[in-house]
Structure formats: C-alpha cells, structure tokens
Amino acid sequence: MKRDFYPDGCQQGFTLIEIMVAMLLGLFLLGGGLQVVTHSKTTYRTQEALSRMQENARFAMDFLAKEIRMAGFIGCGNQDALTNTLNTPTAFLYNFGTAIEGFESSSATAWTPSINNLAIPSPLPSALPGSDIITVRRVDNQGFTVPTHVTATDGLTLDATATTANLKSAGFLTSTATNNCATAVVTDCSTAAVFQVSGVAGTVLAHATGGACTLQNATDDLGKTYANGQVYPINTISYYVRKKPGYQPGLYRKKGREDAEELIEGIEKMQILYGVDTDITADGTANYYVTADKVLVPDWRKVVSVRISLLLVSLDDNLTDKPVSYTYNGVQEPGDRHLRKVFTSTIALRNRLS
C-alpha cells in the first residue's frame, strides 16, 4: 500500500478509499467468523439435544423393562394359586390376578378400555390423549419371612429383620411408625393370599376385617397357614404420558393410590403392542402382536411379551431451520422445529416364560 510522507518523514495517513476497503475486508472476516461460530453453536445444540434424547430413551426403557419383566411376580412362586381376601378383589388397583393390562389410545380423547371409572380418585390423572397406558401388578422388592403362623386367621409374625426402620422402608409403616394400610401378599411357593394390613404390632401384621383403612378385608381367613412363607407389599403400577402446563410431556408412574411422579421428560408419545401366546400348549413365544383393545380379557393371561415404541422430543426448540414433519405409528405429523426420534424395544414377561 502506497503512503505519502511529509518531508520530515512523518506518516501522512490513509485515504478514505483505503479505510473503506479495510472496513469491507474486516466485515468479510467478521461475517465469516460469526458464521463459523453460529454453525458451531447449532451443531453443538443439535448434538446435545440428540444425546439428551438418547439418554432419556435409555432411562425410560430401563424403567419400563424392569417393571414389565417383573409383571405377575408375587414372591417365590410366579404361578401360585392366588386368593384375594379384599372386599374389592376385581377393582383396578387390586385386581392382582391380572398381572399386566393395557389401555389403547383409541381417539384424541379416549382410551379402550376406558380409564374414566377405574377408581376413585382417578388412578391416571391428566393422561395425555394419543398415548397408550400400561399397568403391571407385582410385589415390591423388600419382603420378610413368616416363621410363625398358627391358624389361617392369625396375624403374620415376621422374622427379626422386620425392624421399625425396615417396615417403614418396605411400606408397612408410615414415617410416624403407624400402620400404612399397605396391600400385601403372603406366599409359600405353592399358593398365595392378598390381604389388607389392618394393623402392625411389633413384628405382627394383622389382616382383620374392618378397621380404619380405606380398603377393607372381606374376610380375615387367608385360606391356610403360611408358616415359613414370605410376605411382601404388592402394588398396581401404571406408566403413562402426561404434560404439565408449561412443560414438555414426560413419562409418569403412578403406584397404587400414591401421587403420580414424573420419571423422564421429553417422552411425547407411547404406543404399545402385546405379544399373545395362543398355542394350546403354551411355549412362551408370541404368535402375534396386537393393541390393548384387541386383547380379550381372558387373553391377558396369555400375554408373554410387550413391544413398546416411544417418541422422544428435544427439550430445546429452534433446532431446525424450518418445521420438520415426522412419522410415528404410521401417521405423518406436521411437526415443528423440535427434533424427534423413535425408540422401540420388545420386553419378555419373565413370569410367563417358566
């Protein structure tokens, strides 16, 4: 670049054209730098969103797989003849003879079978239309041995591990060490009986009729004695998609009469197929997969596997240049600027394979 100097050797300065050219070149360089930064940020946000979606899908499938695999587990024997002494043995929350049950989203507002009158209060509050619901029934993880049980109407005397802390942990006692009115099952690996814990005295679980609990026993007779058996809390656990106002939809779990709790965010829809073993001599292999509304009531005992499809949505918006349509469950949706991805898994019911 040519410069003029005064006679004493001092620099005279740049011309207006030179300054404008330099500014133009600077703008080009600045624009290129900003473009690199913008693309890098977009790539980072996209990769982070995809990673979060994969992580959420893995956690959701882990939760569902664990529950579904254990459906129908009632202690040491999964094929026990079950006696239900409750006064509402076929009510949704206490129908423990049906290990697994589904509800197909049959329209934008309804499910088949209907979930509207399953229990009071509603067992599945604010379920998101368009997504299926799955319910499993099984015992909890923590149980106790019953070393002494003299008659079928006597309380169940538990082993020495049934401390106050352990009874609270298992759900038989509340935080104030009073009866938690738990629903329980006692089993000796050949038969089992479901009952309401009407009282806890030391290490003895009572199962009398009447009492202060909402649920009642129709009889205090368990049908037999269960000395050297095992006793566990037993629950009905439902998984469904729900959306809180102002939040992304997520996978929720509702255990018995407890409040629903969010497990994983970013689960937009859930579709479920049930594998039914229709062989005369059951071999534990599904002959076909159908939606919940196509499973006849007696055939729920023949369901041996479950195929779950989850539609994950990114928590962040504006990850694409324009709205992107997507296809889920054979239907094309208009979409928006969120990212979406479908994850599918097939889960076997362990207690139907033995």
UniProtKB/TrEMBL annotation:
Matching InterPro entries: N_methyl_site, PilW
Domain of life: Bacteria
Keywords carried by this UniProt record: Membrane, Transmembrane, Transmembrane helix
Pfam families: N_methyl, PilW
Organism of derivation: Crenothrix polyspora
BP terms from Gene Ontology: type IV pilus assembly
Membrane-traversing stretches: 12-34
Protein name stated in the entry: Type IV pilus assembly protein PilW
